[in-house]
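Hey, I'm writing a tutorial for new members on how sequence and structure tokens pair up, and I'd like a real worked example in the thread rather than a made-up one. If someone can provide the structure for the chain below, I'll link this post from the tutorial.
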Amino acid sequence: MEPSRHHRNKELNKDADQFLMIRQVLNLIFMIGAIIGVIIFLTGNTQVGTIVILASMVFKIAECAFRFFK
């Protein structure tokens, strides 16, 4: 009996994504930073909120770069 497609893909992806933990941490930092930035932005300090959001986007760009290295 042939293994299911899902099982085969899981086996292939196990070794393929060596950066998974780093990507997850970078995504977490991005999400927390973006939420804090939006809160700061909406509470009235738009300049600081924008800077925080842009700084958190650096972590998302880094995460995307790790995806390409996969």
